[in-house]
Amino acid sequence: MPAERRAPFALEPLAIRSVCTQSVLEPLMPEGDTLFRIAAALGPALEGARVIALELPRSDRRCDALVGRRIERVEARGKNLLIFFDDGTVLHTHLRMSGAWHLYREGERWKRSEATASAILAVPGYVAVCFRAPIVRLLRASALRGDRLLGGLGPDLLGDGFDAAEALRRLRALDEVPLGVAIMDQRVVAGIGNVYKSELLFRRRLDPFAPVRAYSDEELSAMLDLGRRLLQANVEPRDPSGAYRGPTAHYLHTRTTRAGFDRG
Question: Catalytic annotation on 30?
Fold first, then answer.
């Protein structure tokens, strides 16, 4: 739906916007807390709703079978967003550096061109649009565990059941890899990108270029614990405006606004 195309109603868009000092940190890969906040904001509009329409403009796959299906939940897994339908289908998106999710009221004018839409999901009252996402696909929930992109993800730092021992085991499996590289490997832990990696290692006074084997289990466990706490701290707004500070005091990484789900 381009600027000229409208759905049935018109209200201000709801959005999560991830912003950075552009000359320094733009473009930026979304971190785990960004996806968590997107899922948390999409959820109330989508969960429990019946699908009116689903289009994947860049895919040959038809989505007619999902019309009328109920959306069970919206979930972030590391840097991935998963939308589960009641027939066992899952819509998987990964924003990488270019993608953005926008949530509009029915009839609201879109902020971006329809030509850049990767997924359009309409439910009663809302239209959720994913723009310029390099990964948009449908798969079966039963196939997630063995999926080449999702099956190998490490413990999610924002997950309720985060397994610290398993995360440490996976990190130790990369003993010869520089710590700064290993901690961003989503097969070790899901959710850490370059910004959190830099802040995390700085706070723990760990050399990103030293191999993992240079550090004790206690040091690595403390690093993982801090990473989890940093991400958790950044999924809730910090002031009445909805803005909140990222892991450093110098950059605003993510904010909730009334202007759409936007990264960058």
Answer: yes
Annotated catalytic residue within 8, 26, 57, 79 = 79
Q: Are 263 and 30 in contact (CB under 8 A)?
A: yes
Residue 135: strand pairing partners: 94
Q: What is the pLDDT of residues 159-202, one digit of tens each?
A: 777 888 988 988 898 899 999 998 888 777 877 777 778 888 88
Annotate 160-204 with DSSP letters as a single string: TT--HHHHHHHHHTTTTSBHHHHTT-TTTSBS--HHHHHHHHHHH
Which tokens is 222 given?
């403390």
CB–CB of 70/50 below 8 Å? Answer: yes
Scan for tokens 């899922």, then name that residue: 39
CA dist., res. 97 & res. 172, Å (int): 29
Among 4, 13, 27, 31, the one annotated catalytic: 31
The DSSP letter of residue 56 is -
Which pLDDT score, from 0 to 100, does residue 242 have? 39
- The yes-or-no verdict on residue 10 having pLDDT over 80 is no
* Region for 96 from its dihedrals, namely left if φ exceeds 0, alpha if ψ lies in -120 to 50, beta otherwise: left
State yes or no: is 79 an active-site residue. yes
Instruction: Identify whether the C-beta of residue 42 lies closer than 8 Å to the C-beta of residue 71.
Output: no
State residue 104 phi and psi, 5-degree precision.
-120, 150
Q: Which of 4, 12, 13, 30 is catalytic?
A: 30
Tell me the domains of the chain and their CATH numbers. Answer: 15-151+237-263 (3.20.190.10), 164-233 (1.10.8.50)
Q: What is the chain's mean pLDDT, rounded? A: 75
How many angstroms separate the CA atoms of 194 and 89, rounded? 31
Catalytic site residue 12? no
* Residue 175 C-alpha from the chain's centroid: 28
This prediction has a pTM of 0.61
